[in-house]
């Protein structure tokens, strides 16, 4: 994890520790005797979903089951959501019946082709305003 927040602003004497800033999920250097805003825990899961490849100018925001929310999260465990408000679309990271993790929507079939090829393995095409 390499997402560091702003430093303390000068040389610091004595041992230093790190903490995760709850608001922006960045590492911050702090004195080891400082009170922590929370805690860090380990969670094991069967896999992760890849970050989506949205079309040009399309914003996607991810939310993990732990409440972390950002458009640039790299680890997306099961039950994470991906929201593309411009498309009115929400996807959920789920275990696929054939193995591995995959993004899916509550509605069967393809979703908007502008986001990750509509979830299609082949070509996603628009047909009368509907992705196929």
Automatic annotation (TrEMBL):
Domain Thrombomodulin-like: 43-108
Superkingdom of origin organism: Eukaryota
The keyword Transmembrane appears for this protein: yes
Gene that this polypeptide is encoded by: THBD
PANTHER family: CHONDROLECTIN VARIANT CHODLFDELTAE, THROMBOMODULIN
One GO CC term, this protein: membrane
Membrane topology of the entry: Single-pass type I membrane protein
UniProt organism field: Chelydra serpentina (Snapping turtle)
Subcellular location, record wording: Membrane
Protein name stated in the entry: Thrombomodulin
Keyword Transmembrane helix in record: yes
One Pfam match: THBD
Key words, A-Z: Glycoprotein, Lectin, Membrane, Signal, Transmembrane, Transmembrane helix
GO molecular function, one term: carbohydrate binding
């Amino acid at each position: 994890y390499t997402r560091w927040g702003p430093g303390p602003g000068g040389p610091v004497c004595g041992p230093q520790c790190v903490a995760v800033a709850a608001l922006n999920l960045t590492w911050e250097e702090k004195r080891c005797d400082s009170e922590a805003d929370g805690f860090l825990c380990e969670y094991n899961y069967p896999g992760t979903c890849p970050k989506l490849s949205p079309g040009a100018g399309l914003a996607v925001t991810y939310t993990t089951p732990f409440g972390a929310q950002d458009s640039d999260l790299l680890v997306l465990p099961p039950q994470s959501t991906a929201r593309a408000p411009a498309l009115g679309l929400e996807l959920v990271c789920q275990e696929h019946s054939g193995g591995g993790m995959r993004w899916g929507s509550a509605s069967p079939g393809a979703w908007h082709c502008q986001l990750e090829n509509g979830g299609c393995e082949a070509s996603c095409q628009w047909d009368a305003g509907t992705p196929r």
